[in-house]
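Thread title: Can someone regenerate the structure for this chain?

I was given the following input by a collaborator and told the matching structure tokens would be attached. They weren't. Posting the sequence so someone can regenerate them.
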Amino acid sequence: MTVTAGLDVGSTYTKAIILTEGGEIVGKASGPTGFKLAEVARKTYDAALADGGLAEDEISYVIATGGGRHQVDFKDVHVTDLTASARGAAYFFPGTRTILDVGGQTMKASRVDEKASVVSFRLNDKCAAGTGAFLEKTARYMGYGIEEISALMTTSKEPVPISGVCAVFAESEVINHLSLGTSPADIMQGAIESLTGRSVQLMKRVRAEPEYTLIGGILRFETMGKTVSDLLEAEVNIPDPDMVQFVAALGCAILGHRRLEKLRAGEGMAAKAGVSA
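Best answer:
Regenerated them for you:
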């Protein structure tokens, strides 16, 4: 059995996936990235191996992605997160044509073709107000943990607008709303509606077309997907909550199998050429 691994060393979390040639996910792990990127990559990889009951020498190919991909010293090659996410999204939803990836520090929209190759993409402005980090920071400021965000937003009755395009200005708006007695639920819902508004504008800039697939850690919050769907006036695809953060890592593992196929095909051609000679 041929097995590959994919690692996504993101700005907030590092994820690893172990995948068989039949497309079965046999191991996965994740953990906070921190600042020791090489160490967390190794730790997360080892945890995924343990989860799959595999030894390192049983892995045939390793591909890394994410901002910290260059720090993975045991990888065979690295790819961009756009390329990896496209392959991972197509694994879950083969008809995907537009991908929205909302992570802790970045937001990306890309349009792909029928072969899951990226044909157009746009990134958010360099400001945390357009990422998941702003939602998490807003929740913590109001005394809530990340795991409480979804439940909190379900109680919102009248969301308030958070219009700041910069995280500093947006945070000032949050403080002002709190001073006026606005409920934390309405503030959180307002924050996520602000985030989804930016995300849809980003999708329009890549000339988004269905099927739409949403990925990234922020999609763990059910309200995010629903709000994007409402703004687009269309159905959206979202992987299961326990996989929505692993899409890019999965894409790397898929690309690992494709790379092995090409290498083996090349070796076969070389062998035939040798016999002919």
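The domain at 95-237 is CATH 3.30.420.40 (Nucleotidyltransferase; domain 5).
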